[in-house]
Amino acid sequence: MNFLGIDAGGTAVRWAVCDRAGHSVARGEFAPVTGHLFLPEARAGFEAFAGELGAAIADLRIGAVIAGITGLTGDSTEAAAARGLLSEALRIDPAGIEVQDDLWIGYHAVFKPGHGHVVYAGTGSVGMHIRADGTVLRVGGRGILIDDAGSAFAIARAALNLVYRRIDRAEDPGPLGRALFAAVGDDSWNTMRAHVYGGGRTAVALLAQVVAEVAEADPAALAILHEAGRELAVLARALIAREGLRDVVLIGRAAGLHPAIAQAMQAALPDTALRMAITDAALAAARLACERARSGAG
Which of 22, 72, 109, 142 could share a disulfide with 146, CB 3.0–4.6 Å? Predict the structure, then answer.
């Protein structure tokens, strides 16, 4: 019997299968999906992903699944819909599938419930504490139209805004502007507009890497990264205010774009133990599915 973990974030879907001993036996990656299954196009994309995943693991006997999916929470109708779609595609009883948001599995990759706070910075941003009784406190993470401060999307959006403000004032776009234009192909607004509005949040978020690469050459780029760290500290302080002082772990690919992000976050949290962690959330979810199956909890 094997166990499947799914980490569906904003830039990719990563999955892993482990055996009863917790050893990885298979893994893979698909294009990103979202848990916004109230949108027809998002539901169609999720159905396509589930079908591809079913084909990829057809030869493996899966006993239980834990999936962390961006854009939903575990108590939502979208989570129930995702569970149904996965059940049909994977031919697994829905009772053997647990669907949560992607940070929920990220938390379990670094802490046991009640032991700490996690702040995630990827395409979006969110903070989480899971209490010892399993109840969840989330702060932030309300999407790009409302929130996601400190995320890769927010970093890139701030950089684009700054560059076009420079251009509007007839100033040199600077190293940051030239690097962003090189990343999309040229310096025309038509090209940038097509990249941003055609590619959506993922295309914008990927430009955060460019901001990090020119941080030493353009002080404004470095300032944007420092601001991202301070915004992530806001999430940590909210968790501490509500659940008490505990260690804070910063996870997510955007968190590691540049040392300035964690440095600014730590400076804003002088009394808090902060560390960064690189997590294998998909494998952690698979192992958690295995543990729960063994204990009869999943």
Answer: 142
Domain assignment present for 68: yes
Question: What is the extent of the structural domain holding 158?
Answer: 152-267
- Looking up tokens 């949290």, which residue turns up? 269
Predicted TM-score (pTM) of this structure: 0.84
C-alpha dihedral sign at 69, 72, 78, 79: positive
pLDDT tens, the chain, 298 aa long: 999 999 997 778 999 999 999 999 999 999 989 899 999 999 999 999 999 999 999 999 999 999 999 888 888 999 999 999 999 999 999 999 999 988 898 899 899 999 999 999 999 999 999 999 999 999 998 988 998 999 999 999 999 999 999 999 999 999 999 999 999 999 999 999 999 999 998 899 999 999 999 999 999 999 999 999 999 999 999 999 999 999 999 999 899 999 999 999 999 999 999 999 988 889 999 999 998 888 764 4
Q: Are both 213 and 238 inside the same structural domain?
A: yes
Answer yes or no: do 94 and 156 share one domain: no
Helices (H) and strands (E) in the chain, counts: 10, 10
